[in-house]
């Protein structure tokens, strides 16, 4: 019994010593505990997703920009589609969906940081399953927005 406890304690000590952190748990600098989020469309899906992820991370979103707090400006998000393979009859069989978001971080007395975030997913297109594939594409896009929001938090935490 004592050996089991010692082994567990040793494993915990090794994991904590190597800097292991659970995914999604970022330590944000004090400077980013409060920020103003600015977007072209405050009701867009990406703005809502980023707002939710920021709040989940403990960031206080200020309704109005101030001189002391950073400003995160969400630029245009874009979904691109590239062909990966085709069926023998010439129809596209597989796509690669590429979701991009441009972000600018403005801080007092520091140059602006321009970030380009990108997530990509492969998507199989079967023309016989048109309705199901449309729903699958919508779910993929929702998941890609969520991953972009997590990437943004990770980038902000490293500034």
From TrEMBL:
It is a lipid-anchor. It holds the Pfam family LptE. It comes from the Bacteria. Residues 1-19 form the signal peptide. Gene3D superfamilies: Lipoprotein like domain. The keyword Ubl conjugation does not apply. Keywords: Cell outer membrane, Lipoprotein, Membrane, Palmitate, Signal. PROSITE patterns: PROKAR_LIPOPROTEIN (PS51257). It is found in: Cell outer membrane. Belongs to the LptE lipoprotein family. Component of the lipopolysaccharide transport and assembly complex. Interacts with LptD. Together with LptD, is involved in the assembly of lipopolysaccharide (LPS) at the surface of the outer membrane. Required for the proper assembly of LptD. Binds LPS and may serve as the LPS recognition site at the outer membrane. PANTHER family: LPS-ASSEMBLY LIPOPROTEIN LPTE (PTHR38098:SF1). This is LPS-assembly lipoprotein LptE. It comes from Neiella holothuriorum. The lineage of its organism: Bacteria, Pseudomonadati, Pseudomonadota, Gammaproteobacteria, Alteromonadales.
């Amino acid at each position: 019994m004592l050996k089991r406890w010692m082994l567990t304690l040793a494993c915990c000590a090794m994991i904590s010593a190597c800097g292991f952190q659970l995914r999604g748990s970022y330590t944000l600098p004090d400077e980013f505990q409060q920020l103003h989020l600015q977007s072209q469309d405050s009701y867009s899906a990406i703005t809502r997703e980023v707002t939710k992820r920021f709040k989940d991370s403990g960031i206080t979103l200020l309704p109005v920009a101030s001189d002391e707090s950073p400003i995160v400006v969400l630029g245009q998000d874009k979904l691109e589609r590239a062909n990966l393979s085709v069926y023998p009859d010439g129809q596209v069989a597989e796509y690669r969906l590429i979701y991009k978001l441009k972000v600018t971080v403005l801080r007092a007395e520091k140059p602006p940081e321009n970030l380009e975030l990108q997530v990509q997913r492969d998507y199989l297109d079967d023309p016989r399953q048109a309705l199901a594939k449309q729903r699958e594409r919508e779910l993929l896009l929702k998941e890609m927005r969520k991953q972009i929001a997590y990437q943004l938090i990770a980038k902000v935490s490293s500034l």
